Amino acid sequence: MVGREGGWRERLFIIIFEADTRAGRYFDFLLIAAIVASVTVVMLDSIPSIHAKYGAILHGFEWFFTVVFTIEYAARLMCVNHPTRYARSFYGVIDFLSILPTYASFFYPGLRALVDLRLLRLLRIFRLLKLAAYVDEYVQLARAVRASRRKILIFLSVVAILVVVNGTLLYVVEGGERTAFTSIPTSVYWAITTVSTVGFGDIEPQTDLGRAIASVTMLIGWGILAVPTGIVTSEMTAQKFQKEKVTTRTCRECLTTGHDRDARFCMHCGTALPRYESDETYRDNAKN
Amino acid sequence: MVGREGGWRERLFIIIFEADTRAGRYFDFLLIAAIVASVTVVMLDSIPSIHAKYGAILHGFEWFFTVVFTIEYAARLMCVNHPTRYARSFYGVIDFLSILPTYASFFYPGLRALVDLRLLRLLRIFRLLKLAAYVDEYVQLARAVRASRRKILIFLSVVAILVVVNGTLLYVVEGGERTAFTSIPTSVYWAITTVSTVGFGDIEPQTDLGRAIASVTMLIGWGILAVPTGIVTSEMTAQKFQKEKVTTRTCRECLTTGHDRDARFCMHCGTALPRYESDETYRDNAKN
Amino acid sequence: MVGREGGWRERLFIIIFEADTRAGRYFDFLLIAAIVASVTVVMLDSIPSIHAKYGAILHGFEWFFTVVFTIEYAARLMCVNHPTRYARSFYGVIDFLSILPTYASFFYPGLRALVDLRLLRLLRIFRLLKLAAYVDEYVQLARAVRASRRKILIFLSVVAILVVVNGTLLYVVEGGERTAFTSIPTSVYWAITTVSTVGFGDIEPQTDLGRAIASVTMLIGWGILAVPTGIVTSEMTAQKFQKEKVTTRTCRECLTTGHDRDARFCMHCGTALPRYESDETYRDNAKN
Amino acid sequence: MVGREGGWRERLFIIIFEADTRAGRYFDFLLIAAIVASVTVVMLDSIPSIHAKYGAILHGFEWFFTVVFTIEYAARLMCVNHPTRYARSFYGVIDFLSILPTYASFFYPGLRALVDLRLLRLLRIFRLLKLAAYVDEYVQLARAVRASRRKILIFLSVVAILVVVNGTLLYVVEGGERTAFTSIPTSVYWAITTVSTVGFGDIEPQTDLGRAIASVTMLIGWGILAVPTGIVTSEMTAQKFQKEKVTTRTCRECLTTGHDRDARFCMHCGTALPRYESDETYRDNAKN
């Protein structure tokens, strides 16, 4: 209780790192909008004709978003208890990398090639996807995918072997300097495009034997396509029976998220957690 | 009971807006046939060689269907209790837009470009798909898709991020004015065709590094393809255990559909509903 | 019991139309082999280089298979109780059509174009797939597909509307005589190749707006792909709990198949059925 | 108990053929690394530019791996009880074939074409995939696929018929010497690429009728795609309820794997098995 009235830093922490209060949600919405807008600016700037016409305006927008993200980065560093620990965490590094290129290219114009690093900003949306309204579904999906991790790994190694053996077969049957199957890696690339049913069409078997092998590859690939679907689906059906309500409560010491509503200490580092706060809390307070 | 003998307007309402009586079903069948025929006329007319030969005949058909749909639109306006409310509803606007272009191009020949609006007629089939015989399956499917709405939204945002990051990677690796990857948006378009396993083949990686990244993109896309299937399938399996019989009963005040067989008041606006009428009702009457 | 010793016609009937005895299975295996071999002959004969070299030999084989199938057709007519009824049934017509072309092209050489009708022989394999060893799985699959028939129909009509609307959109955006989108039907064809993720690549959007619409089409198609899978999977999971053993018993009057082991009368026309006979029956007889 | 202290041959057997001890797992990891590395060498050597520059070095690596695999092959022969029986087993033959080509091309340089046989080494990974950590998932997947074997066979024959009938239809409609549909086999190859949604794009219908048939083929193929997924998924969901812990214990007489932890005799040939040994066993021993 004492920790909760700890002033503006804690207030800020709840707004920036959590999403169960109204202010926290607004912050997340605005940040997602800013990320999407800034990525759109980078993408538009890469089109030669648009760069020629509106390059200067887009450059101005870019500086605006860089300043906004710099302020946000500073605010994050200020409101956590251990700034250096945050700065070295996964999202801390991404936050830093996504503002660095604009400054770097200002001081050293030769570093312009780095500007595409700015698209790393998109990865930050994953953190924000934990918007209160969607956190349940997000956690369920992530859990189902994580639970089928090992089976998918085995499945991928079977596909890898299949693809190498098939690609080599076609290299032996069709290969040669004048054909499209110039080397085994190229043939394996063809096998991957075929088994995944993408089928670009730049490399194709021309002989009857090659086409027969390709047909078998396609049918096998088709049957195999059923396996990852089966894995994920059976996992999801199983998960339907073990739902639980999740929060975005975040420990200020170690930044672990997802504590229970009635948790009083961080489940990872044991620090006391401030009282859980959400829209319902406010409503409860209003009632009393 | 009193409301039911309320004359031809209510009779018409049951025929046009509902599909649980024999007359209602005939009306729906005829209307679907007319929509499909009129859309076929528009499509055939767009083929230059056919337009040159049979343009006049097709023009005649077009006027015939326009008049039919105008009469239908007038009948719908007449039999509802609040014509303006219907005119401003989703289907009301579509009904209007699908007859407008033919008249408009008659008075202002310059508006011929609008004629493709007539294809909006197709959207009206969704209303008619609620044919008594299929309404159960339609409602089940719609419910399963609606229940997985949020998960699919999260899934789509993950795919969007994946596609932008991958497209940019290939732009950095292969990009340049002389290659197919001319800008980031083009590269992202390539990434979408690849992840969705469509693979047109007009834009393709040519370097070894680009092909390696493309291979990883395809395999990831393949695994990810399993997720929406898992979502919808687990939802459908769950729905198998909560079936219930549905009707096409429609409130004449607010046009809400799907009231229970024994409902006496609209569940949305509270208006008294006329007695439920279906083939079985007639059979019951015949028995007594 | 009396009917059973009814002579060679009934013996023949059990061998040709059923597959629960050893002789019946051998007959089915031989017939499948003959069908596959005769289809292979037709296919090889269509390759110009092979036709030039081995045309005469293949012609000989063709006559051999035609005579074999003629004898089989005659045997089928002889052993059923109502030959004309069989001749007018679905498989009766196919049996006739698959021997007709060879004779026809002998008497009227101008009818050679009909020879491809011979490939209809393949459809006859569906009847033979009911080999005792696989009949269980075949019936289960067919039942699951039949149970999801209505949902798939609704699904297909939604896809049809989607494809027409999207194709027209691209015709409006990209269409013109010099582009690939020459008419609405061509654009709809493109939309079908895209939504089904086939993506041939001969027709492709070239403008930015066209590509944006195409991207949305692909992602929608991807999500929609999940629906038929969900339908069939949930049906199959449900079927896992209602297995039952099936036979290939066939009524000699109306040719209905699949009667229960202990059925004594045809479930459709009420004719008395001969005693059920299978390998186990023989084994039982040997024991006594 | 007596058999267990039987000396280094049994020790070696447990390390090479099983994967429940620490040494066994290390051996498997090293072997997988060696296989992947040697396959990479073969693939790189097939690229003309790399072969020209680094051919000699890659040749050296190749000899190194061949010697390593020869030693491994000798060790396997030494530690089993019946070397000839092992040499004639599936993996015994593959082990031999994957070292043969390097020696053969040394003595008879004309046999260089055989070197691609070395890629058969990849198949040996399937044996090693039974790494203790993944054996559970591997066995589950294999069991689900094996259980749906018959249904998939029936499914494939339906697809085969569909593909032949559709391919022939397009040959009849579009075929001719100047078109892409030169013969029925080529048309069937096109039908396979279409139904499996690969869609290379080298062979394509050009007429309106051909495109209409192709559209139907795609939509049917799309619906059919749902069937194998349904088969595998329903099988996997069912398997979720019959888990059991598996081992990699291998009989030294007949090389059957997967004996229970407390099995005392081989389930196939009845030979007495040595005591089961795993990391947990060591831990148990340390405790006592």
Explain how this protein is built:
The structure is a homotetramer of 288-residue chains. The longest helix of chain A is centred in the N-terminal third of the chain and has 32 residues, at 48-79. In chain A, helix 9 packs antiparallel against helix 11 (208-239). With 288 residues, chain A is mainly alpha-helical. Chain A has helices at residues 8-17, 22-45, 48-79, 83-87, 90-97, 100-107, 124-128, 135-147, 149-174, 184-195, 208-239, 279-287. Helices cover 64% and strands 0% of the residues of chain A. In chain A, 37% of the residues are buried. Chains in contact: A-B, A-C, A-D, B-C, B-D, C-D.
Summarize the structure.
4 copies of one chain form a homotetramer. With 288 residues, chain A is mainly α.
What keyword list fits this structure?
homotetramer; 288 residues; mainly alpha; 12 helices; 64% helix; 0% strand; flat
